[in-house]
């Protein structure tokens, strides 16, 4: 027969017995830094047809025809217009797609990105 107070007699792991301390478990989330955002801009030139610019805005930036027309007219009148704001890699890809499409169609359309 085991002596009292031995390991077999310990009730500390049973409900209602043992420690009465209560605590709150908090999960710490790592601080995730938001990615830097970049504005993708179209630059005006006197040679690229307006309709081509509208098609590029619809294709590359998923703009509706109305949105594309507004941006194209803004670029035409002000010299530069914002197509969208994206994380670095997305902005870089969109700039490349615009430049490649313009080059393939022999248009001098320029597209750049700048940190917001």
TrEMBL record:
Gene3D superfamilies: 3.30.1390.10. Binds to the N-terminal domain of the chaperone ClpA. This is ATP-dependent Clp protease adapter protein ClpS. It comes from the Bacteria. It comes from Devosia ginsengisoli. The keyword Membrane does not apply. InterPro entries: ClpS, ClpS_core, Ribosomal_bL12_C/ClpS-like. Keywords: Hydrolase, Protease. Residues 1-31 are annotated as: Disordered. It holds the Pfam family ClpS. Residues 33-111 form the Adaptor protein ClpS core domain. Belongs to the ClpS family. NCBIfam families: PRK00033.1-2, PRK00033.1-5. One of its GO terms (molecular function) is peptidase activity. One of its GO terms (biological process) is protein catabolic process. Involved in the modulation of the specificity of the ClpAP-mediated ATP-dependent protein degradation. The lineage of its organism: Bacteria, Pseudomonadati, Pseudomonadota, Alphaproteobacteria, Hyphomicrobiales.
